[in-house]
């Protein structure tokens, strides 16, 4: 049986602009408890083409960008989108290998 989590979501679903609004650490968990070990960062995006919905994109490793003042347009390498469940409720997220400011960044 095909599961919702098996579906691949096209990155074009996010729209043409990806606005970075926040950068949050991702912590390692052991025995269902959060540790102080940071394993990566979640880049929080605002999607202006999608009624300003937000989505978090996780990147393992060191912090690649700082939280902008306001927002900054960004682009990702190897961006993958997926659906996962949190407390039985479907959530939308993503992961990528890197993030950088978009060349047409005006914010």
Number of domains: 1
Summarize model confidence as the mean pLDDT: 91
CATH fourth-tier homologous superfamily? Conjugative transposon protein, DUF961
CATH first level: which class? Mainly Beta
Give the SSE string: EEEEEEE
Strand portion: over 45%
Gyration radius, to the nearest Å? Answer: 15 Å
The best one-word shape is: globular
Architecture, according to CATH? Beta Barrel
The helix content, as a percent range, equals under 10%
Discrete helix count: 0
* Strands, total number: 7
Strand ordering within the main sheet:
5-6-3-2-1-4-7
Question: The CATH topology, please?
Answer: OB fold (Dihydrolipoamide Acetyltransferase, E2P)
Please report the distance between the alpha carbons of the first and last residues: 45 Å
For the largest beta-sheet, the strand count, sense and barrel status come to:
7 strands, mixed
List low-pLDDT spans.
none
Structural class: mainly beta
Overview of this protein structure:
This protein has 107 residues and is mainly β. It has one domain: Conjugative transposon protein, DUF961 (OB fold (Dihydrolipoamide Acetyltransferase, E2P)). It has no helices and seven strands. It has strands spanning 19-30, 33-47, 53-60, 72-77, 80-86, 89-95, 98-101. It has a seven-stranded mixed sheet, with no helix packed on it. The termini are far apart. The relative contact order is 0.25.
Question: What's a quick, concise take on this entry?
Answer:
This protein is an all-beta fold and 107 residues long.
Helices and strands in order, then pairings?
Blueprint: E1 19-30, E2 33-47, E3 53-60, E4 72-77, E5 80-86, E6 89-95, E7 98-101
Parallel strand pairs: 3-6
Antiparallel strand pairs: 1-2, 1-4, 2-3, 4-7, 5-6
């Amino acid at each position: 049986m095909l599961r919702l989590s098996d579906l691949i979501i096209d990155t074009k679903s996010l729209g043409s602009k990806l606005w970075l609004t926040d950068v949050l650490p991702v912590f390692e968990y052991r025995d269902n408890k959060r540790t102080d070990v940071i394993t990566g960062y979640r880049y929080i995006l605002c999607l202006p083409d999608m009624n300003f919905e937000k989505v978090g994109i996780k990147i393992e490793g060191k912090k690649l960008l700082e939280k902008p003042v306001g927002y900054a347009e960004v682009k990702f390498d190897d961006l993958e989108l997926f659906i996962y469940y949190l407390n039985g409720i479907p959530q939308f997220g993503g992961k990528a290998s890197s993030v950088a400011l978009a060349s047409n960044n005006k914010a």
